[in-house]
Amino acid sequence: MLLHDRAQALAIAPLWRLGFRPFFLGGAVFAVLALGLWLTALQGWLGAWQPVGGSLAWHRHELPFGFGVAIIAGFLLTAVQNWTGRPGLAGRPLAALFGLWLAARLAWLGGAPLPLLLALQLPFLPLLALLLGRQLWAARQRRNYPIVGVLLALAACEYLLLQGLALGDEALQRRGALTGLWLIGSLVGLIGGRVIPFFTQRGQGKAQATTSQPRLDLLVLLLSLLIAALLAAGLGLQPRPWLAVPLLALALLHGLRLRRWYAPGIWRVPLLWSLHLAYAWLALAALGLALWHLGLQPQASLGYHALAVGAVGGMILAMLARVSLGHTGRPLQPAPAMTWAFASLQLAALLRVLLAPWLPAAGLWLSGACWLLGFALFLRHYAGLFCQPRVDGQPG
Predict the structure, then answer these.
(1) What keywords would UniProt list here (predicted)?
(2) What is the pLDDT of residues 238-269, one digit of tens each?
């Protein structure tokens, strides 16, 4: 159901009035639950219990396609309303879509038969792409068509991963998981390229945002998608020196964008420096993977975890904190504890990349604890907002 009038909107329970509410809340809760379960599984504390496919397959899938996709869904279902001027998904249809996401999470954890898991998991991303695409098409919002393409590409990656799970093919699972993670990083770059300069200029009290550079933005997106295609083809599972070339180029382009957006005053505004630091991890992830392909660092996982924890996790937490305030009608002034939450996510990435290779047990546990602290602080200060009406009395 699409909302058409104010009275109809206000009659809906606040949690189901706009996509960011259930998906941000559910995604943040899952961020804590999933990392906690993964850490305990690594220690063998879960006994005979195993999720579908084992704990490693579950972890590979649930970071990009459980946690990441939930936040993407919440953000896009909310943003498309602003992009198109058309009402967003709400009410029972929104509850049904969220229920599908939640049912797939429970099926993984409950050891459901694989056919049931596939039936619950595979439709979500195509359905989200359809919902978004219909809104964009009706408003002829061509600028945002590539986002629908990325969602469909994510769906294809998930199919690869789940096909690998069904066939017991480890390499196919890794291809799907790593390409999916990279595509989510590409979305971080695409959306970050729009919101970071705008938020930075607004946060500095300036009326005009930094002039966009469409060619640079397009080049970053195309290069990111090229690397994703190479990963999907299986060319990123072993070191290949020639792959360092596009990765180094992408790291440089990310750095150029970040330099262009930078303003010294960001360090006084947690909602700004958290975004800038998260985006910086995109460049570091590409650089780390380039060094791995050149044989100059020993583990590809360092680059991928820089992407997963630093860029994706850091950007998600920063965007959750800002978007949730704005769309509930509150001032953009997060609780002081959120400064510690943002810092915890940055520390989680540093520990996972710098300490875990040398002290695996300590590095993983400390990094995981920082991740858990960051999202737990977010839930402590934001969870109630999603179930309350906007303070300005507006729908949404």
Answers:
(1) Membrane, Transmembrane, Transmembrane helix
(2) 999 999 999 999 999 999 999 999 998 999 99
**pLDDT per residue as tens digits for the range 164-198:** 999 999 999 999 999 999 999 999 999 999 899 98
- Rounded CA separation 163/391 (Å): 46
Q: Is residue 143 part of a domain?
A: yes
- Please say whether the dihedral angle defined by the alpha carbons of residues 164, 165, 170 and 176, taken in this order, is positive or negative: positive
> How many CB atoms within 10 Å of residue 2?
14
Per-residue CA distances from 37 to 41, 109, 187 (Å): 6, 10, 27
For residues 319 and 328, give the distance between their C-alpha atoms in angstroms, rounded to a whole number: 14
The residue ranges of DSSP E strands in the chain, in sequence order, are none
CATH number of the domain enclosing 327: 1.20.210.10
Q: What values do phi and psi take at 390, rounded to 5? A: -60, 145
Report yes or no on 207 lying in a domain.
yes
Q: Is residue 1 part of a domain?
A: no
Radius of gyration over every alpha carbon of the chain, rounded to an integer in angstroms = 20
CB atoms within 10 A of CB 219: 14
Total number of domains in the chain? 1
Of 201, 194, 316, nearest in space to 269 by CA: 201
Enter the DSSP assignment of 327: T
Contact 154, 169 (CB under 8 A): no
DSSP state of 309: I
Cβ distance 271 to 199 under 8 Å? yes
Q: Which domain holds residue 198?
A: 19-387
- Taking only the tens place, the pLDDT of each residue in 340-372 is 999 999 999 999 999 988 888 899 999 999 999
CB 152 within 8 A of CB 128: no
| DSSP secondary structure string for all residues of 216-278 | HHHHHHHHHHHHHHHHHTTTTSS--GGGHHHHHHHHHHHHHHHHHH--GGGGG-HHHHHHHHH
pTM of the model: 0.94
**Alpha carbon of residue 300 to chain centroid:** 20
Question: Measured in Å, how far apart are the chain's first and last C-alpha atoms?
Answer: 14
Alpha helices (H) in 168-213, listed in sequence order: 170-203
Summarised one tens digit per residue, pLDDT across range 63-116 is 999 999 999 999 999 999 888 888 889 999 999 999 999 999 999 998 889 999
Contact assessment for residue 161 and residue 180, using Cβ atoms and an 8 Å cutoff: yes
